[in-house]
Amino acid sequence: MAEQPAEQPLVTVVTATYDMAGLLGETMDAVLGQDYRNIEYIVVDDGSRDNTAEVVAARARDPRVRYVHQENAGQTRAKNRGIEESTGEYIAFCDADDVWLPHKLSTQIPRFLVEDPPGLVYADTVFFDEHGNDLPTPHCERFGGRILGKLLIDNFIPFPTTVVSRKVIDDLGPFDERRSMAIDYEMWLRISTRYWIDYVPEVLARYRIWSGQMSHRRAERLDNAFKIMIEFQEKHADAIDPIDLRKAWGYAFTTRAKFHNRNDRPRDASADFLRAFARWPFSRRTWWEFAAFALGPRPRVD
Question: pTM score, two decimals?
């Protein structure tokens, strides 16, 4: 590997994977194809039963690649194993079904090299399917700065775009291994209590939508998100504006009411709409979803 300029700090890229050999190669090629060259790439194989090891081996001639195998312990432990093995000043994450654009790191790393550096830098994504075709990407309002209140209301930080300062992880700890899902949301909330967050308003990653991905387990994700919010408000009550907290719970109950409505559970939906209105009755989103609920049943979705 050619000698790197002094101004290029080492970035560790972590990909945790389990039985994703069919997609992993594209992800690895995108990471190794970055125009920012000073990286170490740690692929943590969480006990895969497919040919993941062969996919990594085909690219391991690049000295930046390091393959770590562990017995299956779940995505949270696998991501933390990558952090533990890392030596970079910054740590970036890319799951085995997502793809980076070539200039991702070269766009983001300079954002840390300022007098008052952020704790995390993130960017925009676009959606694509399992065949590589672009999909419509819903608009999502994103924010930078001291964003705790806004982030508590909704997790608008796309995981595959994130880069975190190692100092921040050393300070606040890695992903919470008690959690199986929404682990990124919990970490971003913790970071936002002490650090400002930088947002790059540019598409720097592609997020794959496909039938096998974990994010389709909507009920489990909602349950994890509620538990995270409850624990977070207990631990960080002094850091949260009471109005933001009310808005956040209004948003959360509206989201769950919408889920109940789409799955033909009108009583549960009604109860959550009442909870949403009790927390924050001024939300247009809550009124809009309630109107859709009141007008009649919606098709069931899993």
Answer: 0.90
